[in-house]
Design brief:
The complex is a heterodimer.
Chain A: H1 2-7, H2 10-13, H3 19-44, H4 66-106, E1 115-117, E2 128-133, H5 136-142, E3 145-149, H6 156-169
Antiparallel strand pairs in A: 1-2, 2-3
Helix pairs in contact in A: 3-4
Chain B: E1 18-19, E2 21-22, H1 24-29, E3 34-41, H2 49-61, H3 64-70, H4 74-85, H5 96-107, H6 117-127, E4 130-135, E5 144-147, E6 166-169, E7 174-177, E8 194-201, H7 207-223
Parallel strand pairs in B: 2-5
Antiparallel strand pairs in B: 1-3, 3-8, 4-8, 5-6, 6-7
Helix pairs in contact in B: 2-6, 6-7
The chains are: A mainly alpha, B alpha+beta.
Chain lengths: ~170, ~220
């Protein structure tokens, strides 16, 4: 029986023991959190810009002690949590916008003048869906509503032509 | 020797790099930390056309989306993690490869900065390994990574280094901060005739990447 009591004593639990092992474990956690954070940043790109900065503990490079490593680990963990939340909120917003677009396409007259951009849906490029009346004022009075899809971004060639024309006029 | 008794021709590259040492307590704290270096005859100056063409090719291969995903690749990630572990914020004090990428995006291309900077840019972008150049004739003995002793200074910087600052040193004195400023007199200058290029290895950076980076720098410098 005494050997059982001894086994569960503080010495055998290594409380206050080798700090180096604790620091190594914290460094491993820092590496894992950094990987998670970078994966979230890559997943969010280019829809959302997620901050990855964690304040430096020192202006100079040096071996951090246990408390400092814990601070870095905690700051990174907070960044990862913030990034996850921001990405989740963005995904929810895009899902709501997609549902809104579906409803708008089904009944444009119920969403007068509503405009949804590709960015709102998390899609690359420019362009938008816009609920507008057919034939202008007449369509507005008659309730002839439809969703128009924009033609997207101007091509680089067209932009260059505009620039050349502007320069020529000047 | 071959079966016929003739000497076998040498194949491949004989690694001329020298391995530096890491202070034992730092090696215990940071397994995988290391420094290797080569010395190459060469003087700073304008990069020849093939080197500038290579920089242009690198620029054309590299876009904004690559920059985002670059940090997820094992070697750039390893340096980011190491920066965190030594108290630096890699979004403020950039890792060498990220600094080059940022410059590429801001300047629209890898601008030539002459030799040996262009050789380091090419090798760092191709391998991700952190490289530093020094004037080899100003160095004494083997290079090492160690922490600064009380009262130690970095030449050209006012005041003492805070005790425990991680530095690259030769057998006499610190020649540069680890991932920071270079000591005055040790940087490559117009009078330099022999260049030492050091590769800093951290945990999860394979030795083959370090060897490749040093080989690439040596080949580029020797071609100039």
């Amino acid at each position: 029986m005494p050997h059982l009591l001894e086994r569960d004593g503080l010495n055998t639990l290594r409380i206050g023991g080798d700090e180096r092992l604790a620091r190594a474990e914290l460094r491993r956690q820092v590496g894992r959190l950094e990987r998670q954070l970078l994966a979230l940043v890559a997943e969010a790109f280019p829809r959302l810009e997620l901050p990855t900065d964690v304040p430096a503990l020192s202006g100079q490079p040096r071996a951090l002690d246990l408390g400092e490593l814990e601070a870095v680990r905690d700051s990174l963990a907070a960044r990862v949590e913030d990034a996850r939340r921001a990405l989740r909120e963005r995904d929810e917003l895009e899902t709501r916008n997609r549902e809104l677009l579906d409803r708008m396409l089904a009944a444009p007259q119920d969403f007068k003048w509503v405009q949804i951009s590709r960015d709102d849906l998390g899609l690359p490029g420019c362009g938008h869906w816009h609920s507008r009346p057919r034939f202008g004022l007449l369509g507005m009075l008659m309730g002839w509503w439809r969703v128009r899809i924009s033609s997207g971004c101007p091509l680089p060639g067209r932009l260059a032509a505009v620039e050349r024309r502007t320069e020529a006029k000047a | 020797m071959t079966a016929s008794g003739a000497a076998e021709p040498e194949i491949g590259w004989e690694n001329p790099s020298e391995q530096g040492w890491v202070a034992p307590h730092l090696a215990a704290e940071f397994p995988g930390l290391g420094i290797a270096w080569i010395e190459v005859d060469g003087r700073p100056g304008r990069s020849p056309e093939p080197v500038r063409r290579r920089l242009r090719d690198l620029s054309n291969r590299f876009y904004g989306a690559h920059a985002i995903h670059l940090r997820e690749r094992p070697i750039p990630w390893a340096y980011r993690v190491f920066f965190r572990q030594i108290g630096l914020d890699p979004d403020h004090t950039r890792t060498p490869v990220e600094q080059l990428v940022l410059d590429r995006l801001q300047e629209g291309g890898f601008r030539t900065r002459g030799m040996p900077a262009d050789a380091l840019t090419i090798a760092t972008m191709e391998t991700g390994v952190a490289l530093r150049a020094f004037d080899a004739d100003r160095l004494q003995g083997r290079l090492c990574i160690r922490d600064s002793a009380p009262g130690e200074e970095l030449a050209g910087r006012p005041g003492e280094l805070p005790h425990g600052t991680l530095a690259i040193a030769d057998e006499r004195t610190p020649i540069g901060l680890l991932f920071g400023a270079t000591a005055e007199g040790c940087a490559v200058e117009k009078v330099t005739r022999r260049i030492a290029v050091a590769a800093i290895q951290v945990h999860a950076v394979p030795q083959i990447a370090v060897d490749e980076a040093l080989w690439m720098v040596a080949a580029t410098l020797e071609s100039a």
